[in-house]
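Interim report, section 4.2 (structural modelling).
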Amino acid sequence: MQYEELKALLAAHGQTHVLKWWGELDAAERENLSAQIDSIDWDTVSLTHVAENGERGRIEPIEGLSLEMIELQRAEFFSVGREAIRKGKVAAVLLAGGQGTRLGLDGPKGACDIGITRHLYIFEQLIRNLQDVTQGCGAVVPLLIMTSVLNDEATRDFLEEHDYFGYPSEEVFFFRQEMAPAVDERGQLLMSAKDSLALSPNGNGGWYISLERAGLVKEMSARGVEWFNVFAVDNVLQRIADPEFLGATILSGKATGAKFVRKAYPEERVGVLCLEDGIPNVIEYYELSEKMANLRDGEGRLIYSFGVTLNYLFRLDVLKRIAREHLPVHAANKKIPYLNDEGILVVPEHENGYKFETLILDMVRQAGSCLPYEVVREREFAPIKNKTGKDSVESARVLLKLNGVEL
Ligand code: UTP
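Predicted structure of the assembly:
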């Protein structure tokens, strides 16, 4: 776009300040900034989403498969799931496009070494977990890895250098998610350089659209894939392409499945599966009122206790339908490095603006049906989010050792 066109577009949205340094930029830098401005989705980059955060319908508990119920049908679930895996109906989607800001790493979170006496990388442990299943079922599961422009090259290089930790390289596919601009508390676009907006990955809700854009939905469909098991990079204990979970979800006739652990205590920071206006949904911990978080049944068990582990199954036909619908945009109040009026990069100590993200948990609602599937916390839930304390490398190591993983 030419300068006049850019200026008119930005003026329509009250954002002409991003052209402040235009006169200092060379041709390539102008091209860069112009392309970023051109690709802004103005409906997404709006403070109206701040007001929408937390608006909720009527919340009720949801029924799901408890550990006891699963035990009774385990053999049947396993055989149905294994059959589907053997027929190539399942692909695994690793969400690795996040920035892992809480962990404070430079590179991809999956490249973090959590070993003590030997190297053990997060990616390595996840691939081991997947291999447990593929070896047990005698079949390969394609592994689709979502990255962002910030960590794509580093992720590809890291895995290639490590020979994909023994996974067949022709079964590993990468795709990149989109970026979204951030704004300050007044809704003004922030810049990270004179030729660049402050961009960050647009949330994990964009995984399917990005997969489609990369041509991988077509490719997977052609191979006969019908289910996607989507999982987070940071839970090192999770079972991936779990045949029992898959079998249970297929037999339930539901379009999605969600692994959950019973919440350890009312304030635990996990999203909770429930019904909202009669439809399965995940409510983020900060959106569940204190009263609801503390409600207990006659036996003293928390009523809203199905904590999601970010390990979901999605049926492809339903993904194709919901891909055409809009996901709600969540505005997250964050510390965002920005260029001040003097053109100097400032790294703020406090939250100074908003990033806009779509979230995978909203896809559960859009799918319209979900099988909540309980897993044993100590065996399947060891997320690494923070540097120390809860959900950290330390806490994950304890759980890995408990499960016999040598560190
Ligand atoms: P988190 O919500 O924990 O975010 O992501 P994060 O970016 O990893 O970490 P913080 O909040 O900055 O500390 C849950 C999962 O979703 C992926 C992450 O990589 C992780 O597997 N994710 C998150 C993406 O793939 N893309 C995103 O834009 C955001």
